[in-house]
Amino acid sequence: MEPARLGRNGPRGSSATRARRGSVERPVDMRLVRNLGTLVVAALLLVVVTVARPGPLPAPALPPAFDGATATGLTVEFATNHASRVPGTLEADRAADWFTEKLALYGLEVEEDVWREDVPGLGGRQLRNLASVVEGTLEETIVVVAHRDNSGRGAGANDNASGTAALVELARAYATAGTTASSRTPLHTLVFLSSDAGAYGSLGIARFVARSPLAPRTVAVVALDGLAGKTPVRLELAGLGRRSPPPALVRTAAARTAAELGADALQPGLLTQLVALGLPFGYGEQAPLLGARIPAIRLTTSADGGAPAGADELEGVDSQRLEQLGRAAESLLASLDTAVEIPSGTAATLYLGDRAVRGWALQLLLLVAVLPFAGAAFDLLSRCRRRRLPLRPAWWALRRRTGLSILLLVAVALAALAGAFPRTPELPPPPDEPPVDSWPVVAIAVAAVCALLVWLRGRARPSARAAVTAESELAAHAVAYVALTGIAAGVALVSPFGLVFVLPSLYAWLVLPQLRRSPAWVTDVAFGLGFLGPVLALVVLAEQLELGARAPLYAVSLMTTGVVPWASTVLLAGWLAVAGLVGTLAAGCYAEPAVSRGR
What pTM was computed for the model? Predict the structure, then answer.
């Protein structure tokens, strides 16, 4: 049996009569928390009321003419003749020429955009985007994109020879040569884009967003990424900058794929979508497009974490799946093209089956959820001030821990400068490429030694010290809660969905002063629950990108590349400082710094 952990007023777990409300044993006004909680209920009802069930765009009048046998033949030809398509290599240039030649057979001209950029794990490389434009009646543009490259660890048959082959087959429907049928004139201008460096962080589509004159006119993008895999079909919705595709686009894509597959394609779950809105780790071609407020969706069967060496070969190509998804992509393109007005909003939205939860309503719920905690925090602070409890030592203790957190950020920045973490481009790095494909052992060892030395220095105290009273601990709790309220307010300003990661710590740690007489394990559990938000974020990140134990490394990389705003990183440092202070209080080892005990 675990020995009782000593509190400041005696051993924890000792029996006693119920303490009076407002006393040191029950300092937090839970009645106030419950009363303010009615606001949360009202906000939750608003979320429920605003849930919508959007319908898809009308289905095309004609059935799709996508030829699965032709697409499979193109996949085999492309993956066999150009197995290694690493960006910037001679073989990658030949693969680009292959795409140009195939479209030339149909009388379709290809425009080339050549530039030089640092590619993660490769360094400076020359990249090429290839775009075939089919002019329509309207200037509004619909883009179908498939990245052409691969990592070179296999033939890239599924990812993304199949997507490139499907792109060629879709473009064939608008051929002006090599066919007996008359060419079709679409309502919207169509762009068939073969992007480069898609397997290395979607650099090609980011270039299209930043430099192409077609980008401002683009109203919808359909990304084809691995259409011949044997794994379940997925619709990927995550975007950068807390953006989501419009409900009409999602519902139309879901309806067209279901019509061909006979079953619904998988969509991200509730928790995954929440984490993606709070932590912008969206990977794939749709992510930078959504970040630029361009509606986009990705149709895929390939894993975002990349395929192991030799795993993506021609033997794994599913011809039937390629035909099904090719037909679905053609039907989706036809539905978008025949729509007189394509919904273009990219506001944050949460999708639950065929229902859509408004992002603004969810943000309001998260903001209101902070109010009960904030009310209790400032109520506790006012009680401490009325009792003239010493607050200044607690602020100094928090300041010292904040300094340690800032030193940690400095260490991460120095590690990034040394190459242990990526710094550019401002996109989620490819999870299977250096430097995030393995832990930087040397950098971590050096950082751990430095952190240990700083911690030992911070633990050094004069031997003569007055005992910390229960009132001093209570004052430290009040300071920690007020600081947490400030951090929550900062998160609400920078990234309201980031409150998903903060809220568990607010209410799990709020009850700690009430647990002074509880067994030590109860206090430990309550403190541990405060880390539920960040832990769930890492779990989702690890599952979505197949990172495993590298999820924390990837999360840090999102900070060093700027995908996570610097303000959010600073707020995280503040949260860690508060967590350190609360942890010492929960463990019963809080000690005041050597400062004057004044208020």
Answer: 0.91
